[in-house]
């Protein structure tokens, strides 16, 4: 993938990829929210940051 390429996913696709943000897929948590691993339907692995309500982002 080129650095200028932009990826966009809808929430349903992200929920499916992360098994609805399953704790089993949780990689860690920081000040802005948790990070989850996921797998798209084509097998591509992704990391998704789920921002906390208090993140300010």
From TrEMBL:
InterPro entries: Kinase-like_dom_sf, Prot_kinase_dom, Protein_kinase_ATP_BS. The keyword ATP-binding applies. Residues 21-57 form the Protein kinase domain. ATP binds at residue 49. One of its GO terms (molecular function) is ATP binding. One of its GO terms (cellular component) is plasma membrane. It comes from the Eukaryota. Keywords: ATP-binding, Kinase, Nucleotide-binding, Receptor, Serine/threonine-protein kinase, Transferase. SUPFAM superfamilies: Protein kinase-like (PK-like). This is Cysteine-rich receptor-like protein kinase. It comes from Thalictrum thalictroides.
């Amino acid at each position: 993938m080129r650095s200028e390429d932009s990826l966009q996913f809808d929430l349903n696709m992200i929920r499916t990829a992360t098994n609805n943000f399953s704790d089993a897929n949780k990689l860690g948590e920081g000040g802005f929210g948790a990070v989850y691993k996921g797998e798209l339907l084509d097998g591509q692995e992704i990391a998704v940051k789920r921002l906390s309500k208090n993140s300010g982002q």
